[in-house]
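re: ur question from yesterday

yeah so i grabbed the chain u mentioned. its 392 aa long if i counted rite. heres the sequnce exactly as i have it in my notes:
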Amino acid sequence: MNDLEQLEIFLREFIEKAQTAGESVALNEAQNYIAGEREIILQRVWSAIDKFQGDPNKTRLYIEHLQIEITRLSDLYHQYLQSQNKQSALCDLTRMLLSELNSLYVYLRENFKLFFNPRLLIPQALKDSYIPSIGKMSKKILGTMTAGGQDKELILLIQDYLFTLSRPGHHRIKTFADLDYLINFTWSVHQLFAEHTETALSLRIFRRLIYLNFNCLPVIWFYINRIKRDYNQVDFYEEELVSAIIELRNLQQMPTKSDFGYQQEAKSLKETLCKVYEEEISCLKRLQRLQSKITYKKWSSMIFTPFYFHVTFTLEQLVLFFRLLIESGVVNAEKKVALFDFISKHIGTARKEQLSFGSIKNKYNNPQYSAAKKIKTALLEMIRLINEKYLA
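ran it thru and got these structure tokens back, copy pasting raw so excuse formatting
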């Protein structure tokens, strides 16, 4: 006979009698019996542990057996409860039974942590018992994220997880480890919004997800898509490279909770995103090298000489002239990198045949007063010619 068998026999006989005799059976006596039997079971547990004389293997097998039996019995009566009239006295007794079994299960977890197996299936009633508290915190979390203007996709991802007990979707809470992570995750994120700091909310949420190792696949993809650069929109690979290196350093310095995670057997969220940053940095370095090679002219190695001309401007004056053309709307250059590449390949000054991409970029971002005076003189000369030759 296992430790719960006497309780199970009593329940089966009592419910059969109640179904025959109706509500006239002694429910109070049954409630007292269940509460008393719980105490007797705990006494049996400690007595059995003493008999094992500190043998960890026997203790572990025994505690695991109890976990399995509690889950089996609890799920049996949880199913029974779902099939009955929820307002009957017998259902009230069943709910009391499930509560006592939940208490017994948690007692094993708290008092025998070294031998408790968090990877075993847990009672459905135990999961249901956390729905109200998690639901209350979840509403505040989602409300704060929405009011703070957070990304709607991220809000939906967090919402899907927080409500997984009441609305199972992508996530499944099957084991105590699953439930324990959900409880700690919800509480930790809830506490995050009570902290007073000037750090941006999106960064605080990201740091907390890294700390809690929320390495579920949808969240991983969410952040991967935000790390990946759209190279069609990148003007300067050097600036993107510096930015990626700094972001990687910041990520590497973020703390994580040890031996904790949504999927502890998988790579952590931090490890995964660090790898993504490393790949982006490697790609940016290759693109930067490629860009530096294609922006210098090597006419001597080419059969056909491409379009190329000289200007009397210096490099500073030439670049400022193009900047004025863009700012005045005469030239529409969506990507400055393409303009710099054109200048480098097709224009030379009186002083220099080959204009480097880096020099062009630097002069463009730092216009000189002396260059502006020269450009003004040139433009006034053009106006004089227009007045004399084309408007006369």
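noticed a couple things. The chain has 16 helices and two strands. also The chain has four domains: 5-121, 130-200, 213-294, 301-390.
anyway ttyl
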